[in-house]
Automatic annotation (TrEMBL):
Domain Serine aminopeptidase S33: 28-289
SUPFAM superfamilies to which the protein is assigned, alphabetical: alpha/beta-Hydrolases
A Pfam family it matches: Hydrolase_4
Keywords of the record: Hydrolase
Record flagged with keyword Hydrolase: yes
One of the record's GO molecular function terms: hydrolase activity
Protein name stated in the entry: Alpha/beta hydrolase
Protein backbone atom coordinates (compact mmCIF):
# COMPACT_ATOMS: atom_id res chain seq x y z
CA UNK A 1 0.00 0.00 0.00
CA UNK A 2 1.43 3.36 -1.02
CA UNK A 3 0.11 6.83 -0.33
CA UNK A 4 0.10 9.62 -2.88
CA UNK A 5 -0.17 13.33 -2.12
CA UNK A 6 -2.30 15.55 -4.28
CA UNK A 7 -3.00 19.26 -4.05
CA UNK A 8 -6.22 20.87 -5.25
CA UNK A 9 -6.31 24.61 -5.85
CA UNK A 10 -9.62 26.31 -5.18
CA UNK A 11 -11.10 29.43 -6.70
CA UNK A 12 -10.07 31.62 -3.76
CA UNK A 13 -6.40 30.67 -4.04
CA UNK A 14 -6.36 28.03 -1.29
CA UNK A 15 -4.47 24.77 -1.82
CA UNK A 16 -6.03 21.67 -0.25
CA UNK A 17 -3.62 18.84 0.57
CA UNK A 18 -5.16 15.42 -0.14
CA UNK A 19 -3.89 12.09 1.17
CA UNK A 20 -4.73 9.47 -1.45
CA UNK A 21 -4.37 5.75 -0.96
CA UNK A 22 -5.14 4.05 -4.31
CA UNK A 23 -6.20 0.43 -4.23
CA UNK A 24 -3.88 -2.11 -5.80
CA UNK A 25 -6.69 -4.65 -6.18
CA UNK A 26 -7.24 -6.11 -9.64
CA UNK A 27 -10.71 -4.55 -9.74
CA UNK A 28 -11.60 -1.18 -8.25
CA UNK A 29 -14.94 -1.23 -6.47
CA UNK A 30 -15.41 2.41 -5.50
CA UNK A 31 -14.15 5.62 -3.93
CA UNK A 32 -14.46 6.78 -0.33
CA UNK A 33 -13.77 10.45 0.37
CA UNK A 34 -13.16 10.74 4.12
CA UNK A 35 -13.18 14.01 6.08
CA UNK A 36 -11.20 14.19 9.33
CA UNK A 37 -12.21 15.89 12.56
CA UNK A 38 -11.17 19.10 14.29
CA UNK A 39 -7.54 19.44 15.42
CA UNK A 40 -6.28 16.39 13.52
CA UNK A 41 -5.42 15.56 9.88
CA UNK A 42 -6.03 13.13 7.04
CA UNK A 43 -2.77 11.16 7.31
CA UNK A 44 -4.09 9.54 10.51
CA UNK A 45 -6.49 7.41 8.46
CA UNK A 46 -3.92 5.06 6.97
CA UNK A 47 -5.38 2.04 8.87
CA UNK A 48 -8.76 2.80 7.30
CA UNK A 49 -7.05 3.05 3.91
CA UNK A 50 -5.38 -0.34 4.37
CA UNK A 51 -8.67 -2.06 5.16
CA UNK A 52 -10.49 -0.41 2.25
CA UNK A 53 -7.68 -0.83 -0.27
CA UNK A 54 -7.66 -4.58 0.35
CA UNK A 55 -11.32 -4.63 -0.66
CA UNK A 56 -10.83 -2.60 -3.82
CA UNK A 57 -11.73 0.90 -2.59
CA UNK A 58 -9.73 4.07 -3.19
CA UNK A 59 -9.48 6.40 -0.19
CA UNK A 60 -9.10 10.18 -0.37
CA UNK A 61 -8.56 12.18 2.86
CA UNK A 62 -8.15 15.94 2.41
CA UNK A 63 -6.69 18.12 5.15
CA UNK A 64 -9.21 20.84 6.03
CA UNK A 65 -8.25 24.50 5.95
CA UNK A 66 -5.98 25.31 8.88
CA UNK A 67 -5.21 21.61 9.43
CA UNK A 68 -2.42 19.25 8.47
CA UNK A 69 -0.70 20.39 5.30
CA UNK A 70 -3.52 22.75 4.27
CA UNK A 71 -2.16 25.82 6.02
CA UNK A 72 -1.33 29.22 4.59
CA UNK A 73 -1.25 32.88 5.54
CA UNK A 74 -5.01 33.05 5.03
CA UNK A 75 -5.60 29.76 6.86
CA UNK A 76 -2.95 29.33 9.57
CA UNK A 77 -3.10 26.41 11.98
CA UNK A 78 -6.56 26.15 13.51
CA UNK A 79 -8.15 28.83 11.32
CA UNK A 80 -10.67 28.11 8.55
CA UNK A 81 -10.39 31.67 7.25
CA UNK A 82 -11.41 35.17 8.26
CA UNK A 83 -14.77 34.95 6.46
CA UNK A 84 -17.10 32.22 5.13
CA UNK A 85 -14.93 29.47 6.62
CA UNK A 86 -17.73 26.93 6.90
CA UNK A 87 -18.88 27.39 3.31
CA UNK A 88 -15.28 27.05 2.16
CA UNK A 89 -14.88 23.73 4.02
CA UNK A 90 -18.02 22.35 2.39
CA UNK A 91 -17.05 23.58 -1.08
CA UNK A 92 -13.56 22.11 -0.63
CA UNK A 93 -15.14 18.73 0.12
CA UNK A 94 -17.32 18.96 -2.98
CA UNK A 95 -14.26 19.85 -5.06
CA UNK A 96 -12.40 16.77 -3.77
CA UNK A 97 -15.41 14.60 -4.62
CA UNK A 98 -15.51 16.03 -8.14
CA UNK A 99 -11.78 15.44 -8.60
CA UNK A 100 -12.01 11.86 -7.31
CA UNK A 101 -14.97 11.05 -9.57
CA UNK A 102 -13.14 12.52 -12.56
CA UNK A 103 -10.04 10.46 -11.73
CA UNK A 104 -12.07 7.24 -11.44
CA UNK A 105 -14.97 7.60 -13.89
CA UNK A 106 -17.80 5.15 -13.44
CA UNK A 107 -16.95 4.18 -9.86
CA UNK A 108 -19.46 4.79 -7.06
CA UNK A 109 -18.38 7.57 -4.68
CA UNK A 110 -19.19 7.46 -0.97
CA UNK A 111 -18.60 10.40 1.34
CA UNK A 112 -17.81 9.96 5.02
CA UNK A 113 -16.36 11.82 7.94
CA UNK A 114 -15.39 11.70 11.59
CA UNK A 115 -16.72 14.21 14.14
CA UNK A 116 -16.37 17.68 12.57
CA UNK A 117 -15.76 15.88 9.29
CA UNK A 118 -19.16 14.19 9.65
CA UNK A 119 -20.81 17.62 9.90
CA UNK A 120 -19.02 18.81 6.76
CA UNK A 121 -19.98 15.56 5.01
CA UNK A 122 -23.64 16.03 5.96
CA UNK A 123 -23.58 19.59 4.62
CA UNK A 124 -21.94 18.46 1.37
CA UNK A 125 -24.53 15.70 0.92
CA UNK A 126 -27.32 18.22 1.47
CA UNK A 127 -25.86 20.40 -1.29
CA UNK A 128 -24.88 17.75 -3.81
CA UNK A 129 -26.01 14.33 -2.63
CA UNK A 130 -27.05 13.29 -6.12
CA UNK A 131 -23.35 12.68 -6.89
CA UNK A 132 -22.96 10.23 -4.00
CA UNK A 133 -23.72 6.56 -3.58
CA UNK A 134 -23.67 6.69 0.23
CA UNK A 135 -22.93 8.79 3.31
CA UNK A 136 -21.04 7.68 6.45
CA UNK A 137 -21.32 9.76 9.63
CA UNK A 138 -18.87 8.62 12.32
CA UNK A 139 -18.75 10.04 15.88
CA UNK A 140 -21.34 12.63 14.89
CA UNK A 141 -23.96 14.46 16.95
CA UNK A 142 -27.36 16.12 16.72
CA UNK A 143 -29.19 18.93 18.48
CA UNK A 144 -32.12 21.07 17.34
CA UNK A 145 -31.07 24.26 15.62
CA UNK A 146 -32.07 26.42 18.63
CA UNK A 147 -29.42 24.69 20.76
CA UNK A 148 -26.65 26.03 18.53
CA UNK A 149 -28.11 29.53 18.62
CA UNK A 150 -27.68 29.54 22.41
CA UNK A 151 -24.28 27.83 22.26
CA UNK A 152 -23.04 30.47 19.85
CA UNK A 153 -23.64 33.41 22.20
CA UNK A 154 -20.61 32.99 24.51
CA UNK A 155 -18.44 31.98 21.56
CA UNK A 156 -19.35 35.15 19.66
CA UNK A 157 -18.59 37.19 22.77
CA UNK A 158 -15.18 35.53 22.99
CA UNK A 159 -14.55 36.33 19.33
CA UNK A 160 -15.36 39.97 20.03
CA UNK A 161 -12.86 40.01 22.89
CA UNK A 162 -10.05 37.95 21.36
CA UNK A 163 -10.40 38.70 17.66
CA UNK A 164 -11.16 36.34 14.80
CA UNK A 165 -7.73 34.70 14.87
CA UNK A 166 -7.48 34.55 18.63
CA UNK A 167 -7.90 31.36 20.64
CA UNK A 168 -9.92 31.08 23.83
CA UNK A 169 -9.34 29.12 27.05
CA UNK A 170 -13.09 29.47 27.66
CA UNK A 171 -13.95 27.64 24.43
CA UNK A 172 -11.43 24.91 25.25
CA UNK A 173 -13.02 24.46 28.70
CA UNK A 174 -16.50 24.32 27.11
CA UNK A 175 -15.45 21.63 24.60
CA UNK A 176 -12.30 19.53 24.96
CA UNK A 177 -12.05 20.31 28.68
CA UNK A 178 -15.68 19.43 29.41
CA UNK A 179 -15.42 16.18 27.46
CA UNK A 180 -12.23 15.19 29.30
CA UNK A 181 -14.07 15.49 32.63
CA UNK A 182 -16.61 12.86 31.60
CA UNK A 183 -13.98 10.11 31.38
CA UNK A 184 -13.35 8.20 34.64
CA UNK A 185 -9.80 8.43 36.03
CA UNK A 186 -8.16 10.10 33.02
CA UNK A 187 -4.38 10.06 32.81
CA UNK A 188 -4.24 12.68 30.02
CA UNK A 189 -6.50 15.50 28.81
CA UNK A 190 -7.33 13.46 25.68
CA UNK A 191 -8.36 10.13 27.21
CA UNK A 192 -11.89 10.96 26.05
CA UNK A 193 -10.74 10.09 22.52
CA UNK A 194 -10.11 6.38 23.09
CA UNK A 195 -9.80 3.57 25.62
CA UNK A 196 -6.56 2.56 23.89
CA UNK A 197 -3.80 4.43 25.72
CA UNK A 198 -1.29 3.81 22.94
CA UNK A 199 -3.59 5.56 20.47
CA UNK A 200 -4.11 8.48 22.85
CA UNK A 201 -0.33 8.82 23.23
CA UNK A 202 0.12 8.81 19.45
CA UNK A 203 -2.36 11.69 19.27
CA UNK A 204 -0.50 13.57 22.00
CA UNK A 205 2.85 13.02 20.25
CA UNK A 206 1.52 14.33 16.92
CA UNK A 207 2.34 18.01 16.47
CA UNK A 208 -0.55 18.27 13.99
CA UNK A 209 -3.14 17.21 16.59
CA UNK A 210 -4.72 18.67 19.70
CA UNK A 211 -4.30 22.37 18.96
CA UNK A 212 -6.81 25.14 19.63
CA UNK A 213 -8.90 26.40 16.74
CA UNK A 214 -9.63 30.11 16.47
CA UNK A 215 -12.71 31.88 17.77
CA UNK A 216 -13.83 32.56 14.19
CA UNK A 217 -13.51 28.87 13.30
CA UNK A 218 -15.68 27.92 16.27
CA UNK A 219 -18.27 30.55 15.34
CA UNK A 220 -18.35 29.27 11.77
CA UNK A 221 -18.65 25.66 12.94
CA UNK A 222 -21.52 26.38 15.32
CA UNK A 223 -23.39 28.35 12.66
CA UNK A 224 -22.82 25.47 10.23
CA UNK A 225 -24.24 23.00 12.76
CA UNK A 226 -27.29 25.18 13.33
CA UNK A 227 -27.90 25.21 9.59
CA UNK A 228 -27.36 21.52 8.73
CA UNK A 229 -29.43 20.23 11.65
CA UNK A 230 -32.53 22.21 10.77
CA UNK A 231 -35.37 20.04 9.51
CA UNK A 232 -35.42 22.04 6.28
CA UNK A 233 -31.79 21.21 5.54
CA UNK A 234 -32.01 17.58 6.61
CA UNK A 235 -34.84 17.24 4.09
CA UNK A 236 -32.33 18.21 1.37
CA UNK A 237 -30.69 14.78 1.57
CA UNK A 238 -31.66 12.69 -1.48
CA UNK A 239 -34.51 10.37 -0.51
CA UNK A 240 -32.71 7.17 -1.44
CA UNK A 241 -29.19 8.05 -0.29
CA UNK A 242 -28.03 5.29 2.10
CA UNK A 243 -26.65 6.61 5.40
CA UNK A 244 -24.42 4.73 7.84
CA UNK A 245 -24.09 5.96 11.43
CA UNK A 246 -21.13 4.76 13.53
CA UNK A 247 -20.58 5.85 17.12
CA UNK A 248 -19.45 5.03 20.63
CA UNK A 249 -21.80 5.05 23.61
CA UNK A 250 -19.00 6.44 25.80
CA UNK A 251 -18.28 9.40 23.51
CA UNK A 252 -18.46 12.61 25.59
CA UNK A 253 -18.69 14.80 22.47
CA UNK A 254 -22.09 13.29 21.64
CA UNK A 255 -23.28 13.14 25.28
CA UNK A 256 -22.25 9.51 25.66
CA UNK A 257 -23.79 8.52 22.34
CA UNK A 258 -27.14 10.21 22.92
CA UNK A 259 -26.46 12.75 20.17
CA UNK A 260 -25.82 10.00 17.64
CA UNK A 261 -29.00 8.21 18.68
CA UNK A 262 -30.95 11.46 18.35
CA UNK A 263 -29.60 11.82 14.82
CA UNK A 264 -30.68 8.25 14.12
CA UNK A 265 -34.21 9.04 15.30
CA UNK A 266 -34.48 12.18 13.19
CA UNK A 267 -33.29 10.40 10.05
CA UNK A 268 -35.66 7.48 10.76
CA UNK A 269 -38.53 9.94 11.05
CA UNK A 270 -37.58 11.34 7.66
CA UNK A 271 -37.50 7.78 6.24
CA UNK A 272 -33.88 8.06 5.15
CA UNK A 273 -32.35 4.64 4.24
CA UNK A 274 -30.36 4.12 7.43
CA UNK A 275 -28.01 1.67 9.14
CA UNK A 276 -26.62 2.40 12.61
CA UNK A 277 -24.02 0.70 14.79
CA UNK A 278 -23.09 1.88 18.27
CA UNK A 279 -20.39 0.32 20.46
CA UNK A 280 -21.13 0.33 24.23
CA UNK A 281 -17.50 0.92 25.30
CA UNK A 282 -16.44 3.11 22.36
CA UNK A 283 -15.28 6.65 23.02
CA UNK A 284 -14.89 9.41 20.44
CA UNK A 285 -12.35 7.91 18.01
CA UNK A 286 -13.89 4.50 17.47
CA UNK A 287 -11.54 3.88 14.54
CA UNK A 288 -8.69 4.14 17.06
CA UNK A 289 -10.39 2.36 19.96
CA UNK A 290 -10.47 -1.30 20.99
CA UNK A 291 -13.61 -1.77 18.87
CA UNK A 292 -11.89 -0.61 15.65
CA UNK A 293 -11.91 -4.02 13.95
CA UNK A 294 -15.65 -4.28 14.51
CA UNK A 295 -16.12 -0.75 13.15
CA UNK A 296 -14.14 -1.57 10.02
CA UNK A 297 -16.12 -4.79 9.53
CA UNK A 298 -19.42 -2.92 9.85
CA UNK A 299 -18.28 -0.30 7.35
CA UNK A 300 -17.04 -2.94 4.90
CA UNK A 301 -20.30 -4.88 5.02
CA UNK A 302 -22.32 -1.71 4.47
CA UNK A 303 -20.13 -0.63 1.54
CA UNK A 304 -20.29 -3.95 -0.28
CA UNK A 305 -23.77 -3.52 -1.84
CA UNK A 306 -22.72 -0.05 -3.04
CA UNK A 307 -19.58 -1.32 -4.80
CA UNK A 308 -19.17 -1.61 -8.53
CA UNK A 309 -19.65 -5.24 -9.43
CA UNK A 310 -16.96 -6.62 -11.70
Amino acid sequence: MSKQMRYLNTGDGHSTAIHHWPTQAATSKGILVWLHGMAEHGARYEPLAKALNEQGWHLYCPDHRGHGLSVSEACPKGHFGDDNGWDCLVEDALAVIAMARETHPGLPCVLGGHSMGSFIALAAAQRSGENLSGLVLCASDYHPAAYYTLMGLPVKLTRHRNGKRGVSPLIRRMTFGAWAKRVPDPSTEFDWLSNDRDQVQRYLDDDLCGFDCTTESWCQLIEGLRHIHSIVQLAELPDQLPVLLLGGEQDPMSDMGKGMMALEQVLHTMEQPLTAHFWPEGRHEILNDHCRDQVLDAMSQWLEPLALKG
